[in-house]
Amino acid sequence: MSIPVLIAAKRDSFMNIHEYQAKALLRSYGAPVSDGRVVLRAEEAKTAAGALDGPLWVVKAQIHAGGRGKGKFKEAGAGDAGGVRLAKSVEEAADEAKRMLGRTLVTKQTGAPGKQVNRIYIEDGSGIETEMYLALLVDRVTSRVSFVASTEGGMDIEEVAASTPEKILSFSVDPATGYQPFHGRRIAFNLGLTGAQIKQCVALMGTLYKMFIEKDMEMLEINPLIVTDKGDLKCLDAKMSFDSNAMYRHSDIAELRDTTEEDSKELEASKYDLNYIALDGEIGCMVNGAGLAMATMDIIKLYGAEPANFLDVGGGATKEKVTEAFKIITSDPQVKGILVNIFGGIMRCDVIAEGVIAAVKEVGLKVPLVVRLEGTNVEKGKEIISTSGLDVIAADDLKDGAEKIVKAVKG
Ligand code: GDP
Ligand code: MN
Question: What is the value of pTM for the model shown?
């Protein structure tokens, strides 16, 4: 499988949490964050804002995506303002919260469909002296945890990396020694911190590293990390993702999962124990075995198209499971063609054929379908498909299948 696809597949095995949840976790570790209240219903907004001191309030849409400040709401009546707003009174804060709740926020990270705002975080506003960028992540090249820091905070870090890479400091931590104060000093000097801020930085970086390791995080991004008008460091925004495979040992974190933020097709697939990951392409794939799934995606790319998903129905899939898998693929409006590529070992080709036919009967078939079957009961499987009356393009092997589906889609 190509590296970008593999990374995309990998990224989706992470669990994200909301900013307010990440900040509660930061607070529990003693990291500096503002006081705040979460609001789920418009009626609660005034009480929530009133519980904070003022004179400045920040009202923040809680979605699993960044770029909220510069985002725009889709609906009329939500005004032109984005998903992070400053307010000068309790009333103003409550109004902003009401304006955002239930509406759809579109940011650079949500993509065109946007995300519905179901939770609002109202925070005590901070006076800002400087905004900086800080992140911890798992560096797959060195197999270590890396720090990334930059003076260019509050901005899109990809943009900084592209235009002024010299403004980004990045280094990894040797797991044998773990975090050491010199790591923190290196970041502090690079960010131009002075006096007491250096000490605060050394302590904060140690805290972040500790929680990153203890909680099996994949990524922790503080953008911006600020120096307040009082000269102290503070985490003004927080984005955290965790390794899903480690959630069994972090029930406290697992509880924070908000499935309404997740891809509905992936959620549906997980119910049926299907290994499904949504991607950006136009060819839906149904394959058995992760290796064959990767090979299928690669060969689709080789013939000039992009896979719409990664889907491994597993070794011992039932007819019901295959039906569900097919339904999930066809429910994706991006899918312009489907390639079923099955090597029947434990999995029998006739079971796959029956599953596909059952699914097509239920949901219909509006796009070309290429089926390549090989292995156990292949003759029976092919017969079931050819006598079904379905408009299926049969393929002899992987190459043939990929060529045919790309041709059917691209014309
Ligand atoms: P994002 O747009 O989703 O990354 O949301 P952030 O939490 O990073 O907020 C966006 C921007 O709003 C920040 O970069 C700040 O400039 C501003 N902002 C957020 N909180 C405060 C605050 O407490 N006080 C002030 N003055 N500005 C804030
Ligand atoms: Mn931010």
Answer: 0.80
